[in-house]
């Protein structure tokens, strides 16, 4: 049963102001209005998965986990609730982003069945087009060159400042690349590819130095397993559009790019087998999906 939206919103917003435990922000903090629906809550980790609408000037509509520092919400925040909140972004803070000033504008309707969550993107099972890019060595290659191997592909830009975004994607890929390189069963069967969507600044030479910074000085710190690539804006847009990645220049700070997160797994026969949206996956999760892709190709 629906509840009077204005009254309920006022109550919860007032409560939020009284009980908020906000995190100190730096002078570079940015704030954005957020509206969405709660998918799930994790009281222990103080996070909620929110299916949010487009945040103008910052992020496309997507579903992702947000830290919440206000303890009062865990007694009232339930799956299906519609909320308004303030998204705080501060790359210098312990959590680089979190939600504040949460107002619950509509409680879930108990008479309606829960909406199933589809974790897969629409391109699952489709053949990947033969995109052409340039790797960190300056050599042109195509995705068809990966045929016969299970491939994971993600998207980054080298100057991304957020620890939970490109930095985390690159750390996960470099960690997994090191593990695959010493695994005799998979070292010739699995490959990783990070595609930069910042062709104006991410030259092959800079991407090579970036990748070496993650791989370290170990003797296995080469690019046999993990490659980084870039292309023209048109080439990168084609790849990004296929996998559902959204990105645009931040109009308030043109050195930054607002973007979503997408990581895909491709089978040895060139079909998409898994799409991870967001950052809530680990190298172990990705390795499991690469193994599944190998098994599917039989």
Can you walk through the features of this model?
It is a single chain. The chain has 298 residues and is α+β, with helices and mostly antiparallel strands. The chain folds into two domains: 5-106, OB fold (Dihydrolipoamide Acetyltransferase, E2P); 132-297, Glutaredoxin, CATH 3.40.30.10. The protein has helices spanning 5-19, 166-181, 204-215, 233-243, 283-297, and strands at 30-42, 47-52, 62-67, 82-89, 97-106, 132-135, 140-142, 150-156, 190-196, 226-230, 247-249, 257-259, 262-266, 272-277. α3 (204-215) links the parallel β9 (190-196) and β10 (226-230). α2 packs across α5 (283-297).
| Helix/strand/pairing category | alpha+beta
Please give the number of β-strands.
14
Q: What's the main sheet like?
A: 7 strands, mixed
Give the end-to-end Cα distance, rounded to a whole number of Å: 50 Å
Shape: globular
**Number of H- or I-type helical stretches:** 5
CATH superfamily of the largest domain: Glutaredoxin
Q: Mind telling me the CATH class of the largest domain?
A: Alpha Beta
Q: What is the CA-based Rg, rounded?
A: 21 Å
Run of helices and strands: HEEEEEEEEHEHEHEEEEH
Strand content range:
25-35%
What is the average per-residue confidence, as pLDDT, rounded to a whole number? Answer: 83
Order of neighbouring strands in the sheet with most strands: 7-6-10-9-8-13-14
Total discrete domains: 2
At the fold tier of CATH, the topology name of the largest domain is Glutaredoxin
Level-2 CATH architecture of the largest domain: 3-Layer(aba) Sandwich
Low-confidence stretches at least 5 residues in length (pLDDT < 50)? Answer: 1-25, 114-120
Helix content: 10-25%
